């Protein structure tokens, strides 16, 4: 029996309602899902995204998004596998966000699964890695430092490596997914990560790592002097990237024109600080840091051991920091510690210089490593200066009581029985009696001020003392650490080598 017009109309209306419901459902997805859908549609239509115009390399008709730049062709089967992995990534991301009210992840045995997924995506984008990113000891330590809330100083003496960049951006991506729906600590409209670099080539390296996270909805934009300013500003306003990679001078130009708001940045990375200082950009970096009004973490890659750059590091980091390094060299461990060798004409002049150094020291706790026979005169001088004195192994229980009181205090250690235990908390160390061996000096240098960038090591020696056996080794250490070498020592070292 044929259906009537009313039945056909009802069927048609029902079909239309289903289509409308499907459209409405797609409009209620999260911002991250919408970004992934939009990126897929752009790829299918061959259109370029706004941020693509800020890349340093030009696209081609065969590769409109520069996704194949520096990569080998990927088979179709691998693309299908990647799509399936995207759904898994989103499900992991959702479950992690739902667990935001649980205890901090630092209490868990290791990094979360979503961070590992980010590292896996980056690793699959680069086919010539020496070792898997998951095995990076540096990365694990950085992740712990980030969640501890401390600033980080990287003391390898080089710029950031691909491995380090991967861990930084992956940790930031994981933090974004956690805070995305956190009502108590919501994300701001500012980029989450601000990565300052000295050159366009370094910015290209950082952005190439960030591009691997694009499928997870994380966008990175690089700003540089080679592109039009208006185009970059319009792109920033339309895209609202999570990561911003920029040179200091271009970023300040855009901030002045209100092209981007950096007040809510959560993680500030300053790469190749020595190069930035040498190029005259230190004031610009300081201005950028001051413009970040929110509570944020900073990481500084100090690519120079020169003592002239230590004040710059100190001005950009807090009092308490975590030291990270890919190297275990003496220069790396002694980074950001100012070493001063005071060569005096006599014992009287040496004691006078020692007194002057005490007057100029602002540290509350001072570690003095000297010979036991010098304790009496040193104690008298310290008490005359108003310092409380503690002698190692004699009154260990008095140290906590003294540290709670106001004023300065000094801790005397016998140089002949030196033990580096407990040295990590001392920023200021004085050696009124010179070290008996090169190993003792290195042990003191590499064990002090482990949580600070304000370490100071003063050594005192008279012209009459015989230091010929140590001069060569100590001169090498001072030179490797970028410190000032006394002319008399340099001449003595040269004569010994001839």
From TrEMBL:
<dbReference type="InterPro" id="IPR011545">
    <property type="entry name" value="DEAD/DEAH_box_helicase_dom"/>
</dbReference>
<keyword id="KW-0378">Hydrolase</keyword>
<keyword id="KW-0547">Nucleotide-binding</keyword>
<feature type="compositionally biased region" description="Basic residues">
    <location>
        <begin position="10"/>
        <end position="21"/>
    </location>
</feature>
<keyword id="KW-0347">Helicase</keyword>
<feature type="domain" description="DEAD/DEAH-box helicase">
    <location>
        <begin position="186"/>
        <end position="301"/>
    </location>
</feature>
<keyword id="KW-0067">ATP-binding</keyword>
<dbReference type="Pfam" id="PF00270">
    <property type="entry name" value="DEAD"/>
</dbReference>
<protein>
    <recommendedName>
        <fullName>DEAD/DEAH-box helicase domain-containing protein</fullName>
    </recommendedName>
</protein>
<feature type="region of interest" description="Disordered">
    <location>
        <begin position="1"/>
        <end position="29"/>
    </location>
</feature>
<dbReference type="InterPro" id="IPR027417">
    <property type="entry name" value="P-loop_NTPase"/>
</dbReference>
């Amino acid at each position: 029996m044929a259906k009537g017009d009313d039945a056909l109309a009802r069927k048609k209306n029902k079909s239309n309602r289903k289509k409308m419901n499907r459209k409405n459902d797609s409009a209620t997805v999260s911002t991250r899902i919408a970004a992934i859908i939009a990126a897929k549609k752009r790829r299918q239509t061959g259109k370029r995204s706004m941020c693509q115009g800020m890349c340093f390399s030009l696209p081609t008709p065969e590769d409109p998004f520069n996704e194949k730049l520096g990569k080998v062709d990927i088979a179709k089967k691998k693309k299908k596998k990647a799509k399936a992995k995207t759904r898994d990534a989103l499900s992991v991301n959702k479950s992690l966000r739902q667990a935001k009210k649980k205890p901090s992840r630092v209490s868990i045995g290791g990094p979360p699964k979503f961070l590992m997924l980010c590292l896996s995506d980056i690793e699959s984008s680069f086919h010539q890695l020496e070792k898997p990113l998951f095995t990076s000891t540096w990365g694990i330590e950085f992740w712990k430092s980030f969640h501890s809330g401390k600033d980080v100083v990287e003391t390898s003496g080089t710029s950031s490596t691909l491995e380090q960049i991967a861990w930084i951006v992956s940790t930031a991506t994981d933090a974004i997914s956690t805070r995305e729906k956190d009502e108590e600590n919501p994300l701001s409209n500012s980029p989450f990560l601000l990565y300052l670099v000295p050159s366009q080539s370094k910015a290209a390296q950082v952005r190439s790592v960030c591009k691997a996270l694009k499928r997870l909805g994380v966008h990175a934009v690089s700003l540089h002097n080679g592109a039009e300013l208006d185009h970059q500003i319009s792109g920033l306003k339309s895209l609202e990237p999570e990561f911003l990679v920029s040179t200091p001078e271009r970023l300040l130009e855009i901030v002045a024109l209100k092209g981007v708001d950096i007040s809510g940045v959560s993680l500030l990375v300053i790469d190749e600080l020595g190069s930035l200082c040498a190029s005259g950009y230190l004031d610009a970096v300081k201005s950028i840091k001051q413009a970040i009004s929110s509570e944020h973490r900073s990481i500084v890659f100090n690519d120079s051991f020169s003592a002239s750059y230590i004040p710059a590091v100190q001005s950009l980091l807090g009092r308490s920091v975590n030291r990270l390094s890919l190297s275990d060299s003496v220069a790396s461990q002694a980074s950001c510690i100012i070493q001063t060798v005071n060569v005096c004409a006599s014992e009287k002049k040496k004691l006078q210089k020692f007194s002057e150094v005490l007057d100029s020291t602002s540290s509350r706790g001072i570690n003095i490593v000297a010979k036991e026979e010098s304790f009496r005169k040193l104690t008298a001088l310290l008490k005359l200066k108003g310092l409380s004195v503690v002698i190692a192994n004699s009154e260990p229980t008095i140290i906590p009581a003294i540290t709670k009181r106001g004023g300065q205090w000094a801790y005397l250690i016998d140089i002949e029985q030196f033990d580096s235990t407990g040295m990590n908390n001392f920023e200021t160390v004085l050696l009124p009696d010179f070290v008996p061996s090169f190993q003792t000096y290195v042990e003191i240098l590499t064990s002090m001020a482990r949580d600070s960038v304000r370490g100071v090591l003063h050594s005192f020696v008279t012209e009459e003392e015989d230091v010929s056996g140590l001069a060569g080794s100590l001169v090498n250490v001072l030179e490797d650490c970028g410190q000032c070498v006394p002319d008399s020592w340099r001449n003595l070292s040269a004569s010994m080598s001839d």
